[in-house]
Automatic annotation (TrEMBL):
It comes from the Eukaryota. Pfam families: PRELI (PF04707). Signal peptide: none annotated. One of its GO terms (cellular component) is mitochondrial intermembrane space. PANTHER family: MSF1/PX19 RELATED. It comes from Dimorphilus gyrociliatus. This is DgyrCDS6264. Residues 1-171 form the PRELI/MSF1 domain. Transmembrane segments: none annotated. InterPro entries: PRELI/MSF1_dom (IPR006797), Slowmo/Ups (IPR037365).
Length: 190
């Protein structure tokens, strides 16, 4: 078993980062995620938004490996998330469904306001990797650990891209609204 842990500070408010987390896929940094489907979504009696999504990913596994183990090139991941607006936390829990009898990757991400920088958001991320029943377990777990680290960095970059897009969209809406107000005022003064 290998464990990957990281922390990252986004220089953006929690609300913005949570919006970006919902809109993270598709993005150019993680082209292997090819689909996201909502399986279930509900608001609990205590106001927590709970969602279950299924992600379709394209594994960049060489053809000979897919033939050797009978793997379809599309893999699936289950993700359950909880957004608690009252205490400003968003938690995501994911687990691979494909090849879970051999490889299990349990990942947890938590977004919350930074404890000392209120205009920033803290991301705490952890992935637990277990490989069983195959030769070279330690080597494969180390390889998966490096992949998790690389994917985490790409995921943070993707979040910044989405945050930039959200801010750009908000700016365009503000400009369009101001133009509309200006047009109404100009017509009313004629």
């Amino acid at each position: 078993m290998k464990i990957y842990k990281s922390e990252h500070v986004f220089e953006h408010p929690w609300e913005t980062v949570v919006q970006a987390a919902w809109r993270k896929y598709p993005n150019p940094m993680n082209p292997n995620v090819v689909g996201v489907d909502v399986v279930d979504r509900q608001v609990t009696t205590d106001g927590v938004l709970r969602s279950h999504r299924l992600m379709s990913t394209f594994w960049g596994v060489p053809d000979f490996v897919t033939r050797l183990i009978g793997l379809n090139r599309t893999a699936y991941v289950s993700e359950v998330s909880e957004v608690n607006h009252s205490n400003k936390t968003m938690q995501l829990f994911s687990r691979n469904l494909t090849l879970s009898n051999l490889v299990t990757i349990d990942e947890k991400l938590e977004y919350k306001p930074h404890p000392t920088r209120p205009s920033c958001t803290l991301l705490e991320q952890e992935a637990v990797i277990k490989i069983e029943g195959v030769p070279l377990t330690t080597y494969l777990e180390d390889l998966m650990l490096k992949t998790c680290s690389s994917n985490a960095a790409k995921g943070r970059q993707a979040m910044e891209i989405v945050i930039h897009k959200i801010k750009s969209e908000a700016g365009e809406l503000t400009r369009a609204a101001q133009e509309s107000v200006d047009n109404i005022i100009n017509k009313a003064s004629l």
